[in-house]
From TrEMBL, chains A, B:
Involved in the assimilation of dimethylsulphoniopropionate (DMSP), an important compound in the fixation of carbon in marine phytoplankton, by mediating the conversion of 3-(methylthio)propanoyl-CoA (MMPA-CoA) to 3-(methylthio)acryloyl-CoA (MTA-CoA). It comes from the Bacteria. This is 3-methylmercaptopropionyl-CoA dehydrogenase. The lineage of its organism: Bacteria, Pseudomonadati, Pseudomonadota, Gammaproteobacteria, Oceanospirillales. Residues 163-271 form the Acyl-CoA oxidase/dehydrogenase middle domain. Residues 41-157 form the Acyl-CoA dehydrogenase/oxidase N-terminal domain. It comes from Oleiphilus messinensis. Residues 282-450 form the Acyl-CoA dehydrogenase/oxidase C-terminal domain.
Length: 605, 605
């Protein structure tokens, strides 16, 4: 397994230099403490923890997996101790309010923390990660008493939380939820039903586990309009947070999965468990959606984390493994063969990984800064605009970054040749671990429908037009830091981006018009549309990076190689990856008939 | 795990109707027995064996894996018994000469057998599959005594064989092979060295295992010109084939792998083992290459097998799983939701799988018929032309079909949503099992260099031009069976194919010219060139199928749905998959600078 090394140079370049986090944080009270020095100290310490504590547990966690012992989940060796250290360091509450025990730092900084932790050990990171979902739900929809009791414990990390949505008969189609909530005289509810695919549904990290459960009241309307949200703790606490009676929340079984084996995926049985309504009756789904956009950045993160980790592993192997001679002449004549990094196709794979890892990082941070406005924005209007902007970006972040992250993980394995298939090297684990990211939190297909059907067509393209306008204006602006031959290269990049941005607008209109005629045109174009959009958004991130690199080089820097590398990677991206838009464009223009004309009964004989 | 059902209708359509196997077999003595009735009987019986015996062992084989017990490999439960039945049925020698105990049927028929067996259970199929490699080597390069002793046992299946090429320090770069062969007075050799990644290196199926080992004589020239080939049996036999003394061939360890867990991948130690030279001294690599083309059809097969099996699993799930309503109105109003096959994006995934599975099948059979000429061709010229044609096709068959097969396997998993990630359903196993196919027998990158560097540039494009000419002439030929509106559709398909065939020629010339200037242009274009070529070759296969379907419909048939389905799938392929050539075209035109300009030291900081 590659020993993870947090790429702090790249992280700081993107966060500070490229996106101007320092200036950005001046817009928020929460940003006051987040000075560059503070950020630096946090990242350094987080990197140390992740590299020393979490990275070594990544492969052993996969080997050992989780076990169900006497009805309770036993996590792999060392997981619990690492969590105790994490809690002692105050990491769980980094971006949560001081009044509930958090450190009150901006949401975006929490994303950088998550990146470091999750790249080192995605399975481990899912336990505190899921807890963040429960924390956000309670923070946004809980009453003061619920916040004081549950949010404080969750922010400290002494309790953890889960999200219980999926049932055997439904994942995406939550209107089919059957779990029942019957009101009791004391204002509580009796919850009965089975939930599946519950990450961190049980474990040995904390004294208590707080489940956020979607369930249906007895008189609830059918479908999605009859679902409510409940807090259901594993053990019933008193008002001071002392853990009491067992609440009949039990693990039916542990799923045996392709990967993320250190993460417990539970079937959870609620057998007359006591629950507490959170948010308004029958508005459970809306409550869920309020933080869905932020949560989905976290899932998109898995893609760029995988790209980064696999890139680190592949790069070191490509520098060491000796095989064949360069076609353009020996490069290491003193050795038995050349290191494989001399071969153009190996470089193609490494550069693809690098472009997705670093481009994805930029897109994640860019989105995270928008999330700051969503959470900490001063006015309702600012928050709503940020929500729309983020709403447009998140399906792209989630689906495009996980699809490309999976590709990158596969390329990393490919660099190792046959050795990539052997567990020992850890490269195949990255592939297995990452594969889930295209499935959970809404599959790629569902994200694509969300983007095209909901965020663009329903919204009449408002957020899309705002983004596309920003991109167009950026392209128009003449870069003052770029001169001479470099200027010509940068201008070429920007003119390509201008052109494809226009095609994007045209295409969006075409799909819009087609969908008025036939609703199946939406689903027929959606995944290609999402991928197409993703390549453009990432091109924007790479143009930004190239331009900033030229600026830094013009200023005169002590490490010009770093910035040259950014420019070369941007050029690679524009030359080799952005053209994938051509195929997606053609595929979606082919129309729905190519998919719908075959009778369901005639797919096979 | 999907219960495999051999798609005999499709297999027979492609083999008999599309490619005219009956007429083809009249060209060979070996084809005399291969009448349509005989073929039908063989396929039916093989399907029964695979469906009833092998398919049920696919998932349990993955769960149990292989074990090393007292130095010997124990295969999963039921594997050995299935092999005994297979041997009793005379399956191993189906396409091998009657004089060595085979059934003397054409090589191509063996490919259909392999397809059925390997789709049902790839891991199991590797044991007899690797043996075929050893059989072919001995048949082509062994002396009469070696054939009488070893080939007979291998053809019966009472012994099995392996190919021992790879060593820890080298896989692709076999010039680095270190295993030593020291001549003994009795004409034998003493073999010492370690080989890795030896599939079927040990097992409990047979009394003896015959290893074909690449090793170096004491005075051998350095590099690839100093490698010889040896027969090294696990137990030394007498001349009557009675197994005797242990030959110090032992299993160092079993690899722990991502998939194909039922297949034993061994580290093999040869510790002063007795070996027998096969073929001329120092010509071991050339001897290996003589049957490499045929062997690689077998590996390409893994891709289309995976596409087929995953398609079968995904299709049945898509018909049963109820989720959401069709955007164009309820399709199953009596049910709680519509089956997901109504959703365009699910159909996109299924059709992609179908297009790769059935298109891949056509390409495999098309290549297998060429292999008949290579093996059974009447004159040296016929055999050499067939070798050239096949040499051109095999890197495409091997790499393109495994890359697209892996995509198809991932799509099948994707159709299942989160359930696809759970082992129980068997869909993730197909992904894990198939992943190796892009790595072994030469990675995709190596196949691409073989295609572009060796088969096209070194050969000055002779085989390429012959194929492209065949394709061009096919497109020009007016289809007499297609009339009216259909005729227009078929002509459109053929004119697209004509156009891209011309682009292919132009592009090949461009790459040729570029490579004269800079050898790194070859490796820079190679994988994109291979994938681009693959999409065109598969388009040819789909055009052929559509035309044959129109012909059948014009004749009047009792099952028009089958042929309509072929035409719809061909249209889907041309509209949605063939356009991927656009991205590959652009990427390879970007040139080597985009890959080579970044200094090796500056990939990461």
């Amino acid at each position: 397994m590659p020993q993870y090394k947090a790429p702090l140079n790249d992280m700081k370049f993107i966060f500070n230099d490229l996106l101007g986090a320092e200036q950005h944080y001046k817009n928020f009270a929460e940003g006051e403490e987040a000075t560059p020095d503070m950020i630096d100290a946090i990242l350094t310490e987080c990197a140390r923890f992740a590299e020393e504590r979490l990275s070594p547990l990544n492969q052993t966690g996969d080997e050992q997996g989780c076990e169900l012992v006497d009805g309770n989940v036993k996590t792999p060796e060392g997981f619990k101790e690492a969590y105790q250290e994490y809690v002692a360091g105050g990491w769980q509450g980094l971006s949560h309010p001081i009044e509930y025990g958090g450190q009150g730092l901006p949401v975006s900084l929490g994303v950088l923390k998550s990146e470091i932790i999750s790249t080192a050990n995605w399975s481990w990171g899912m336990y505190p990660g899921l807890s963040l979902g429960a924390m956000n739900t309670i923070y946004l929809h809980g009453d003061e008493q619920q916040k004081a009791l549950y949010l404080t414990k969750l922010t400290e990390g002494t309790w953890s939380g889960t999200m219980c949505l999926t049932e055997p008969q439904c994942g995406t189609d939550l209107g089919q939820v059957k779990t029942k909530a019957v009101p009791n005289d004391d204002g509580s509810y009796t919850i009965s039903g089975t939930k599946i695919f519950i990450s961190a549904g049980d474990h040995d990290f904390t004294d208590n586990i707080v489940h956020i459960v979607l369930a249906r009241l007895p008189d609830a309307p059918k479908g999605t309009r009859g679902i409510s949200l409940f807090i259901v703790p594993k053990f019933l606490p008193d008002n001071d947070g002392n853990v009491g009676e067992f609440n009949n929340v039990s693990v039916g079984s542990l799923e045996v999965k392709m990967g993320i084996k250190g993460s417990a995926t539970c079937v959870m049985n609620f057998d007359g468990s006591k629950g507490y309504l959170i948010g308004p009756e029958n508005k459970g789904l809306q409550c869920m959606f309020t933080f869905m956009n932020t949560a989905r950045i976290g899932t998109g993160l898995q893609g760029s984390c995988a790209a980064e980790l696999s890139f680190q592993g592949a790069l070191s192997y490509a520098r060491e493994r000796l095989s064949m001679r360069s076609l353009s002449g020996k490069k290491a004549p003193d050795k038995v063969a050349d290191p494989i990094i001399v071969h153009p196709d190996v470089r193609r794979m490494l550069l693809t990984q690098k472009a997705f890892a670093e481009g994805g990082r930029a897109l994640i941070y860019y989105s995270a800064l928008k999330a700051d406005y969503l959470v900490h924005g001063a006015t309702e209007e600012i928050r709503e605009n940020a929500d729309d902007d983020l709403g447009f970006l998140t399906p792209i972040v989630k689906a495009f970054l996980t699809e490309t992250g999976y590709e990158a993980a596969n390329l990393g394995m490919q660099v190792y040749g046959g050795h990539g298939y052997i567990k020992e090297w850890g490269m195949e684990q990255i592939v297995r671990d990452t594969r889930i990211s295209m499935l959970y939190e809404g599959t790629t297909g569902i994200q694509a429908l969300d983007l095209l059907g909901r965020k663009i067509l329903l919204d009449k393209g408002t957020a899309f037009r705002r983004f596309s306008k920003e991109l167009g204006q950026y392209c128009k602006g003449q870069s003052k830091f770029v001169s001479g031959k470099q200027r010509k290269k940068m201008k070429k990049m920007l003119s390509e981006l201008t052109w494809i941005n226009r095609q994007w607008s045209y295409l969006t209109l075409r799909v819009f018009v087609n969908s008025m005629r036939n609703r199946d045109e939406v689903g027929s174009a959606s995944v290609d549309y999402l991928m197409y959009s993703g390549y453009i958004v990432l091109a924007y991130m790479w143009a930004l990076q190239a331009e900033k690199a030229y600026e830094k080089l013009a200023e005169g820097v002590s490490n010009p190689e770093f910035y040259e590398s950014k420019i070369r990677t941007a050029e690679f991206y524009f030359a080799r990856l952005l053209p994938r838009t051509k195929s997606h464009y053609a595929a979606m223009m082919a129309g729905a008939d190519t998919l719908m004309s075959l009778d369901e009964a005639h797919f096979a004989f």
